[in-house]
């Protein structure tokens, strides 16, 4: 159980630790300590100073015995420890304890453990599990609350879920952790889950996508949130680890993932925090690909719901939401016209369809690049030009990637692009445009305006990258409108309720959103828009389901 602190008087040490370059302190472990035996990355406090350490918890660790002890190897401390009072925080379990046949094997394992812990330390920030939240500026909370109230009015589907299920508390006491863009719309989802009874912790799934006023408002409401716009990558992983770590060293029971980072951690380095997982939901196309890959390999840590594949998600969010919000961000950032320009859209999935449709509607000449023959045919039938990226690179004024794949635009494409071409990405991860290769190719890279970086090539051409190649609609814009996220987040809330209810019967595989959830949300949305549709008569239903 990571996150636990053990305090006691050092009884004795071991010569081996000092021989390996760090003193060792042994302490008796009180019966109240429920942490599992094993080897931990830890921090030891000596005379008010914190030291990185490796702790071995068990019955006389390494040598066997009946009495539980904590054996702590302290890095960078050179004094005497005997008789001192020591406080040791167990940060993260790194392996189970085992006995070794020879002292040489033990020495080698300790050296490997130390190397791993120091690597872990260099790539994470210390977890302070007493910290209630960490956001950019709590003075933004009032503004955030006003925006949340507006969004609630624009999200009738999610609010209908709150009204229907709030009194029933179907998630009462369930630990729910989310890694999803910390926006105003996400705030409405978080407060809906709280209303359904969940114990919620949250972080963002992208270093640039947090809306700081939204995070502040959620923190002020008492939900532990760890997110701010402009996180470094180490800060991003720290925020994720903090959000995963519930009081008492417990991990989540249900997760809301966006891109697969939570599943990656809970199925790997943070597996100890996934001990009580009963299920979760995945929001985006990229994350779904990762889930199916894990399922095929037999390493999916819990049942997962493919929210991205729901009709309420990809028909509405991916196509209309990404189409509008991507261009909103591009136009706001560049202040350029779209009409009369050649726009290259990489990928004609649901997101690409929306981006291409909006570009065409604003007067652009649209080229689509694809690897799927039927999507390419579909784009052709919609009167878009279709060609490989190697050819399209010569023509584009604006390039937008939306494939969910890596290395879509690479060095050979940069070599032939027009002067002042604009490159941006609407896929989840920042691997679609090879910005690193462009940086190596450029003689100079420099800021042009907010969220635009220029790359001057040896021949004098300048290529412009928006938002570092990250998700442009959130990194450089406001993200999807609330009306769009209403449907996606209503799917999330109802899918979590469904998974909590059916958890005992679920296998560790990817599940589709039940049709009744999709239909329920669609009908609520239609009613909120003042629209009505026909209903099948019993005779029509019999005709459609029969064989006569």
Please provide a written account of the structure.
- With 548 residues, the chain is an alpha/beta fold.
- The protein contains 19 helices and 21 strands.
- It has helices at residues 15-19, 103-122, 141-153, 156-165, 184-195, 212-220, 233-244, 261-266, 285-297, 311-334, 350-361, 373-381, 389-392, 411-414, 435-441, 472-475, 482-502, 515-528, 538-545; strands at 4-9, 24-28, 38-46, 49-59, 68-74, 85-95, 175-179, 199-203, 225-226, 254-257, 279-282, 304-306, 342-346, 365-369, 385-386, 398-401, 422-425, 444-449, 452-456, 462-466, 510-512.
- The strands form three sheets. It has an eight-stranded mixed beta sheet with strand order 15-14-13-16-17-20-19-18, with helices on both faces. Strands 9-8-7-10-11-12-21 form a seven-stranded parallel beta sheet, with helices on both faces. A six-stranded antiparallel beta sheet has the order 1-6-3-4-5-2.
- Helix 11 links the parallel strand 13 (342-346) and strand 14 (365-369).
- The protein starts with a strand and ends with a helix.
Q: Please describe the biggest sheet, giving its number of strands, its sense, and whether it closes into a barrel.
A: 8 strands, mixed
Radius of gyration, whole Å: 27 Å
Counted by DSSP, the helix tally is: 19
**What is the residue-mean pLDDT, rounded to a whole number?**
90
Which band does the percent of strand residues land in?
Answer: 15-25%
Through-space gap between termini:
62 Å
> Globular, elongated, flat, extended or rod-shaped: what is the shape?
globular
- The assigned structural class equals alpha/beta
Strand order of the largest sheet: 15-14-13-16-17-20-19-18
Number of strands: 21
Helix content: 25-40%
User: Residue ranges: pLDDT <50 for 5 or more in a row?
Assistant: none
């Amino acid at each position: 159980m990571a996150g636990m602190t053990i305090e006691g008087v050092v009884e004795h040490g071991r010569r081996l630790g000092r021989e390996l370059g760090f003193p060792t302190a042994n302490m008796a472990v009180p019966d109240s300590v429920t942490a599992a035996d094993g080897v931990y990355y830890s921090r030891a406090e000596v005379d008010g100073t914190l030291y990185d350490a490796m702790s071995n918890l068990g019955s006389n660790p390494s040598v066997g015995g009946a009495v539980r002890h904590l054996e702590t190897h302290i890095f960078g401390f050179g004094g005497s420890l005997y008789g001192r009072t020591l406080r040791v925080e167990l940060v993260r379990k790194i392996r189970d304890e085992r006995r070794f046949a020879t002292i040489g094997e033990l020495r080698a394992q300790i050296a490997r453990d130390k190397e791993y812990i120091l690597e872990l330390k260099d790539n994470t920030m210390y977890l302070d599990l007493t910290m209630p939240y960490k956001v950019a500026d709590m003075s933004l909370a009032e503004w955030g609350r006003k925006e949340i109230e507006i969004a609630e009015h624009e999200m009738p589907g999610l609010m209908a879920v709150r009204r229907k299920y709030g009194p029933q508390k179907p998630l009462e006491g369930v630990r729910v952790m989310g890694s999803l863009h910390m926006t105003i719309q996400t705030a409405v989802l978080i407060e809906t889950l709280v209303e359904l009874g969940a114990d919620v912790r949250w972080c963002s799934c992208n270093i640039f996508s947090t809306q700081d006023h939204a995070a502040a408002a959620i923190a002020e409401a008492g939900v532990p949130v760890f997110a701010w716009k402009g996180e470094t990558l180490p800060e991003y992983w720290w925020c994720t680890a903090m959000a995963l770590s519930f009081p008492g060293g417990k991990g989540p029971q249900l997760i809301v993932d966006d891109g697969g980072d939570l599943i990656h951690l809970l199925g790997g380095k943070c597996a100890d925090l996934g001990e009580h997982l009963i299920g979760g939901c995945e929001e985006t196309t990229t994350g779904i690909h990762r889930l199916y890959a894990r399922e095929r390999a037999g390493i999916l840590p819990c049942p997962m719901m493919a929210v991205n594949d729901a009709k309420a998600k990809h028909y509405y969010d991916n196509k209309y939401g990404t189409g509008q919000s991507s261009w909103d961000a591009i136009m706001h950032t560049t202040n350029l016209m779209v009409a009369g320009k050649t726009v290259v859209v990489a990928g004609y999935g649901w997101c690409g369809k929306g981006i291409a449709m909006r570009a065409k509607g604003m007067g652009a000449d649209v080229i689509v690049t694809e690897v799927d023959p039927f999507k390419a045919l579909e784009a052709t039938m919609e009167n878009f030009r279709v060609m490989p990226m190697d050819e399209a690179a010569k023509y584009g004024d604006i390039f937008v990637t939306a494939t969910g794949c890596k290395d879509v635009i690479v060095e050979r494409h940069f070599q032939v692009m027009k002067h002042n071409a604009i490159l941006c990405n609407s896929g989840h991860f920042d691997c679609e445009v090879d910005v690193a290769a462009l940086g190596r190719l450029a003689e100079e890279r420099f800021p042009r305006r907010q969220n635009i970086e220029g790359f001057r090539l040896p021949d004098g051409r300048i290529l412009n990258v928006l938002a570092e190649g990250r998700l442009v609609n959130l990194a450089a814009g406001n993200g999807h409108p609330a009306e769009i996220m209403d449907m996606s987040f209503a799917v999330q809330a109802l899918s979590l309720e469904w998974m909590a209810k059916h958890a005992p019967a679920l296998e560790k595989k990817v599940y589709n959103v039940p049709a009744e959830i999709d239909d329920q949300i669609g009908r609520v949305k239609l009613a909120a828009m003042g629209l009505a549709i026909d209903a099948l008569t019993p005779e029509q239903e019999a005709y459609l389901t029969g064989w006569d």
